[in-house]
Amino acid sequence: MNHNFGSYAGGTWSSASTPASSIEVINPTTERVIAHVAIAAPSAVDQAVAAARDALPGWSNTPVSERAAALRRIGDAVAKRQQRLTEVITQEVGTPHKLSSIIQVGLPMSNFGRAADTAEQHEFSEEVGNSLVLQEPRGIVACITPWNFPLHQLVAKVAYALAAGCTVVAKPSELTPLSAIELTEAIDEAGLPPGVFNLVLGGPAVGEHLVGHPGIDLVSFTGSPRAGRSISELASRNLTPVALELGGKSPNVILADADLEKAIPDALNKCFMNSGQTCTALTRLIVPEDRLDEVEELAAEGTAKWRLGDPFDKATRLGPVISKEQQASVRGYITRAIDQGARLIAGGPDQPGHLPRGFFVQPTIFSDVKPDFEIAQEEVFGPVLSILSYRDEDEAIRIANGTRYGLSAGVWSADPARADKVSRLIRAGQVDINGAPFNPLAPFGGSGMSGYGREFGRHGLQEFLAPKAIQKTLTEEKNHA
Ligand code: NAD
After folding, report:
1. What is the pLDDT of residues 285-306, one digit of tens each?
2. Comparing C-alpha atoms, which of 223, 169, 196, 203 is closest to residue 450?
3. Going by CA atoms, what residue is nearest to atom 12 of ligand 1?
4. What distance in Å separates the CA atoms of residue 30 and residue 359, rounded to the nearest whole number?
5. What is the DSSP letter of 464?
6. 216 lines ligand 1 (CB under 6 A)
7. Which entry of 92, 279, 379, 463 is annotated as an active-site residue?
8. Are 7 and 198 in contact (CB under 8 A)?
9. Which residue of the set 92, 245, 379, 463 is catalytic?
10. Is 245 a catalytic residue?
């Protein structure tokens, strides 16, 4: 698969400037190069921003119902490509095929319709005293996204930005550009006015040029705290606002009365899914000291069911991690946790014997993890679960809140009032009680090192809008009446 695409601007693809400036897309299961994609030159980024600028007056003044109809057409065009997109993402990310189909593609596909509904239900104006307060689109949004849920992250931004009346320049991760190309083709097919959506491909250098561009009105970023910090600094030179969705080290608090037979399999799922490469992964399992043995036994037993292998194989529950660097990084965390005194109860740092090729990491569990261990503080972004024990509920909450992150959390209890009380005390943007499912209309985001943006539903739409007050004199109001 070869794409000589450097960028999609003003409704057309432009080809690469020089063959040297291309990205090798590597399949993490086979370690083979599956595509070459051209890196957008700075002039191509400038062109994409200019196209978004030209398209802004028309799109921002398009009635909401027409914008919503366009989003639904994109959703339909993505749905037509569901099978193809599932294959592409299974190849470029390594997510098991079934999960790719449901979560990597099915969820974002339906989010176009949700963004359309949200915009149609939104009050874009209200009267406050003698003011008419309008909510206007912020303008041109740079959407920069990571590789772990490449389509989902991109759609979370693009669908809501377009619904709000903004125009977009998107830059997906250089590790997973293929799903973004497919999405762009779906958007193209849906027939949006040229320049409303633009795509530039490449790595951090392309991202930096985009973020530092004076024509950008808002940067919406999802990725690592490291890049988030650097993007914030760069954007501040033009005083460009930034919305950040960053990493996590999220707690899963098992209260003394929890049903462990349900809680532990769910805890493994919430940690290991997508090979642990999920920003909301619940990677710290916080359990009552007197139930630690039971938890360890259930966790070790459950982990044996997480079969590692080829993501196209139906029996596989865990694919590889994204890259050789990521594999080395995760193994480094595992080795250092052992050195620091954590007790390994499943997995370990070695390449699994039956998989000599591919960036695989064994699902790994540590017990006897102390709150100040590196493995309990740093985001690993691999299939590694840390078990920490507590004596009383206050200590459980202290441990849960004892990192610099604040993205998500789980709470398990047989008593709804107790679960509710503890959920309110945990610093996190979202808390799931007893394994409750993801709600694609609830606000999603964090605090601290997890960033401060919000995505999805009406709170997500709001990110792309800015209020404007028009004051009317009392006479005008009277005449109007
Ligand atoms: P990353 O920060 O390395 O890269 C993310 C994107 O930013 C990529 O497109 C990359 O090319 C670009 N980029 C990197 N440095 C840049 C710079 N200096 N200027 C401009 N652009 C730059 O992150 P990643 O490795 O792709 O993704 C993993 C991280 O993303 C994890 O920390 C994970 O927790 C986080 N994440 C957060 C959420 C969330 O919603 N909170 C969701 C998914 C992933």
Report:
1. 999 999 999 999 999 999 999 9
2. 223
3. 204
4. 8
5. T
6. no
7. 279
8. yes
9. 245
10. yes
> How remote is the CA of residue 400 from the centroid of ligand 1, in Å?
24
Secondary structure element (H or E) that encloses residue 2, with its range: strand 2-3
For ligand 1, say whether the CB of 371 is within 6 Å of any of its atoms.
no
Q: What is the pLDDT of residues 169-222, one digit of tens each?
A: 999 999 999 999 999 999 999 999 999 999 999 999 999 999 999 999 999 999
How far apart, in whole angstroms, are the C-alpha atoms of residue 388 and residue 288?
9
Rounded-to-integer distance, Cα 153 and Cα 183, Å: 12
Sheet holding 408-412, edge to edge: 343-346, 364-367, 384-390, 282-288, 250-254, 408-412, 430-433
Q: Which two tokens stand for residue 415?
A: 């008593």
Kindly tell me if the per-residue pLDDT of 149 is higher than 60: yes
How many helices (H) and strands (E) are present in the chain, helices listed first?
17, 20
CB 425 within 8 A of CB 404: no
CA distances for 146 relative to 2, 93, 261, 479, angstroms? 22, 11, 34, 53
Count of C-beta atoms within a 10 Å radius of residue 443: 17
CA 247 – CA 228 distance, rounded (Å): 10
Phi, psi of 170 (to 5 degrees): -100, 140
Residue type at 338 in one-letter notation: I
Q: What angle do CA 172, 15, 93 make, to 5 degrees?
A: 30
Q: Give the separation between CA 419 and CA 155, rounded to whole angstroms.
A: 32
Beta pairing, strands 197-200 & 5-9: antiparallel
pLDDT in tens, 335-351: 999 999 999 999 999 99
Separation of CA 195 from chain center: 25
pLDDT band (50, 70, 90) for residue 474: confident
Distance from residue 347's CA to the centre of ligand 1 (Å): 27
Q: Interior CA angle at 351 toward 345 and 356, to 5°?
A: 145
User: Is the separation of the CB atoms in 151 and 85 below 8 Å?
Assistant: yes
Distance CA 354, CA 346 (A): 17
Cβ–Cβ under 8 Å, residues 434 and 262: yes
Residues in a beta bridge with 133: 126, 469
**Residue 70: what pLDDT?**
98
CA of 315 to the centre of ligand 1 (A): 30
Instruction: Report DSSP letters for 58-122, one per residue.
Output: HHHTS-HHHHHHHHHHHHHHHHHTHHHHHHHHHHHT---HHHIIIIIIIHHHHHHHHHHHHHHH-
CATH class of 251-433: alpha beta
Query: Does the beta carbon of 448 sit less than 6 angstroms from any atom of ligand 1?
Result: no
Q: Which residues pair with 414 in a beta bridge?
A: none
What number does CATH give the domain 2-246?
Answer: 3.40.605.10
For range 236-255, the mean pLDDT: 98
- Is 31 tagged catalytic? no
The mean pLDDT value of the chain amounts to 96
What are the domain boundaries of the chain? 2-246, 251-433
- CA–centroid distance, 174 to ligand 1, in Å, is 10
